[in-house]
Amino acid sequence: MGQGLSCRGSHEHRLFTAIQHGDLQTFQTLLERDPTLLHHTTVYDRHSALHIAAANGQIEILSMLLDGSINPDVLNRQKQTPLMLAAMHGKIACVEKLLDAGANVLMFDALHGRTCLHYAAYYGHSACLKAVLSAAQSSPVAASWGFARFVNVRDARGATPLHLGARQRRPECVHILLDNGALVCASTGGYGCPGSTPLHLAARGGSMDCIRELLAWGADRLQRDASGRIPYVVALKHKHGACAALLNPTSAEPLVWPSPLKFISELNPEAKALMERALMDANREREKNILKGSAYSYPSHSDTGIDDNISEASDTELCCICFEQVCTIEVQECGHQMCAQCTLALCCHNKPNPTTACLTPPVCPFCRSSIARLVVAKMESCDDTDRDVGDNSCCKLSKARKSRNSNDGGSGFKGLSSFGKMSGRSSGRIGAENEWVDK
Ligand SMILES: [Zn+2]
Ligand SMILES: [Zn+2]
Fold first, then answer.
1. pLDDT at position 370, please?
2. Which stretch of 90-94, 111-115, 348-352 has the lowest confidence by average pLDDT?
3. What distance in Å separates the CA atoms of residue 211 and residue 200, rounded to the nearest whole number?
4. How far is the centre of ligand 1, averaged over its atoms, from the C-alpha of 281 (Å)?
5. Residue 124: left if φ>0, alpha if ψ -120 to 50, beta else—which one?
6. Angstrom distance (rounded) from CA 161 to CA 178
């Protein structure tokens, strides 16, 4: 085989193919013959070797390239970094390696002016999203821009990562972004319909889960876009009936995560996860009533295996407020226990009116001492002294509640997902991203 200049193109092609398929041996052989191949790029997109390794999740080759002091922020024709491509394709190992190598999270591509955070949110790769956020917390970005500003970074048309995640039906990414300080009511500039909030875009995309997340975080059902439309109207227009029912301003207000309360920031992660679940469950109960009798009511055959964990609790573990749920949350310092649902009811109100929002931290319902912390209860430590505190009025309340709940039948929520067809468009190609154009 000749080694002349005429063969250069084919060597280059072989190198890129070897990287794409993770063929380490061919990769090394070709580079030994001609180390300058490493600085070549593909003809059209001008992808470097690092781009190809990142997009294809070839972590071994990617690591070799980075160890060989290749610039981690090398750009292709669209000014995309290898980190953007790894985030786009959900290649978490490559994302982590690139971040370790000091890849810049605050680079903007030339397509839509988007960062790697936009890419991760748009394509719904929550692990990549978390990795980028965690890197941003300790990188120079946090110092120069501030982390909160980075979470809400806008693309060329004013879309934040939260807007993209909501539009593309990525509830997990929506949740992570909200949890990291994404602004729930930010409106876009020109992305989607001008002035859209994440809730408008979730209504457009038709994802019940994204709508639930946003509402639970206090998204405003009455906020209007530049054309004067509320999210309800957007959902109706695009025939997402069940979404519209939730967004209808006349339907019951959802419970809202009590973010203004200071103690939330001190919540331990497990206790927080329990309460988040309780909040979502409570809102789903509410949804059942909203959707009941409508064309979008839950399927009559109930999914089995849901809520069973609750009914099988033994008496010794039951919450002393509702006598329905297991004690899962412990109040500190006093040590009283209750279920996540009752804890939420205690510190969560219906969507607060900003002018009257209660900013005083809640107190323990048993001893009235202020709540310093909420932690996950240890099952065996639920003792009888606590139970005695629940008085008769509590019992009556709980019975009334119990009978109401039993009417709902506790049917599952899985049926809901069929209302909005989940199309996992996660493998979009570079430069072929289908942007939503509102007609
Ligand atoms: Zn309870
Ligand atoms: Zn107490």
1. 80
2. 348-352
3. 9
4. 13
5. left
6. 10
Residue 19 CA, chain-centre distance (Å), reads 32
Lowest mean per-residue pLDDT among 38-47, 263-272, 312-321, 403-412: 403-412
Of the bound ligands, which one is closest to the alpha carbon of residue 342? 1
What's the 397 CA to ligand 2 centre distance in angstroms? 20
Highest mean pLDDT pick, 213-217, 256-260, 349-353: 213-217
Residue pair 132/99 in contact by the 8 Å Cβ criterion:
yes
Domain-wise residue ranges, the chain:
9-247, 316-353+360-400
* Ligand 2: centre distance to CA 315 (Å): 20
Q: State the average pLDDT over residues 154-165.
A: 97
Q: Is the peptide bond before 96 cis (omega within 30 degrees of 0)?
A: no
Q: How far is the CA of 378 from the centre of ligand 1 (A)?
A: 15
Q: How far is CA 229 from CA 43, 194, 232, 311, in A?
A: 46, 11, 8, 43
Six token digits for residue 361: 């931290």
Gap between the Cα atoms of 126 and 426, Å rounded? 12
Work out the average pLDDT over 325-346: 86
Centre of ligand 2 to C-alpha 368, Å, is 6
Note if the pTM is more than 0.85: no
Tell me which ligand sits closest to the C-alpha of residue 367: 2
- Among residues 172, 245, 173, 161, the alpha carbon closest in space to that of 203 is found at 245
- Distances in Å between the Cα of 59 and the Cα atoms of 47, 133, 134 are 17, 21, 20
Classify 316-353+360-400 by CATH class.
alpha beta
Distance in Å, CA 324 to ligand 1 centroid: 6
Q: What CATH number belongs to 9-247?
A: 1.25.40.20
